[in-house]
Amino acid sequence: MTIAHILKHKGSTIMGVSPDQSLQEAALILTERRVGALVVLDSDGHVEGILSERDIVRLCAQAGAAAMTYKVAAAMTKDVLTASPRDKVDSALARMTDRRIRHLPVLEGEKLVGVVSIGDLVKAKIDEAVQEADAMRAYIATG
User: Fold this and answer.
1) Which residue among 38, 47, 51, 94 is least enclosed by CB atoms within 10 Å?
2) How far apart are CA 41 and CA 21, in angstroms?
3) CA 31, CA 35: separation in Å to the nearest integer?
4) 4: part of which helix (H) or strand (E)?
């Protein structure tokens, strides 16, 4: 199974934010959209970073409540791990687990085409296992 398969079923809605927006604005978007991370995009739509709830908490721990007035660029992770739609789910899961990240922007060349979470990937693996088990049961029953 590939990342493209997951995006096909999940959709390719992208929650993005500008590096110049405040952390307060970003936190509101995270809360309203009920997501754990936002892709940080420049004015041309290219990925500059990713901002997770963890990034915000880290900066708040260092700077206190004033951190919410800082720009997204001050808290975002700049070294972004990305995936291709052609990547296998198992490979993406392994990379995310190794780097201890929960969100993976998906790029086709330099164009952002979606974002997958570790939850999306785990759900896909569970669905696949259930389908295989159902197929085995049907095969055995018709034996």
Assistant:
1) 94
2) 11
3) 7
4) helix 3-10
∠61-73-96 over CA atoms, to 5°?
75
**Average pLDDT of the chain to the nearest whole number:** 93
Strand partners, 104: 116
Give the tens place of pLDDT for each residue, 80-104: 999 999 999 999 999 999 999 999 9
- 36 and 118 Cβ atoms separated by less than 8 Å: no
The residues, ordered by sequence, that sit 6+ positions from 7 with a Cβ below 8 Å of its Cβ are: 85, 106, 113, 114, 116
Dist. CA 113–CA 115, nearest whole Å = 7
Kindly report the number of other CB atoms within 10 A of residue 121's CB atom.
21
Class for the domain spanning 3-142: alpha beta
The span from the CA of 93 to the CA of 65, in Å, is: 34
Mean pLDDT of 104-109: 94
Residue-wise pLDDT for 2-53, tens only, equals 999 999 988 878 889 999 999 999 999 999 999 999 999 999 989 999 999 9
